[in-house]
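Write out this protein's structure.
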Amino acid sequence: MNQNLPTCKPANLQLVFRRMRLEDVLAVHAIDTFSFNMPWPERSFRFEVSENAASRAWVAEAQVNGRNQILGMLILWLVVDEAHIATFAVHPDFRRNGIGCRIIVEALTAAFAEGARRAFLEVRAGNTAAQAMYRKFGFEVTGRRPRYYKDNDEAAILMSMEM
């Protein structure tokens, strides 16, 4: 386990982190749609949960107004000894409460326990806030993919971290 993972601020909610289930897909897709210009199609989340053996799909759930609600999600692909964070988002109403930090720590801790020795991700070049957050986890810039995002031809910054 990487000892450099940050300590997350405690969320104001009692969070449960668990693997995503098919019945979570609608809520997860809604978070993705709120969060990104190019959200994944709903069927992609179904595939990650039910068919992709490399997928480790996580949700953060809490009781909100008397009912369980998905507040964040992360999909990671574990291939041999590498963990690729494919997508990650927190519902806009619950951002900046430590939920994102906690779900990343949970997912990376589980991936490292399964044998991952390296983690990597892509992030929009213009998303400097996300880049700064990932640096807190020990991610470093390792490359750039020009015109990666099709909605505006923005480059992707490649970031990775070693165990």
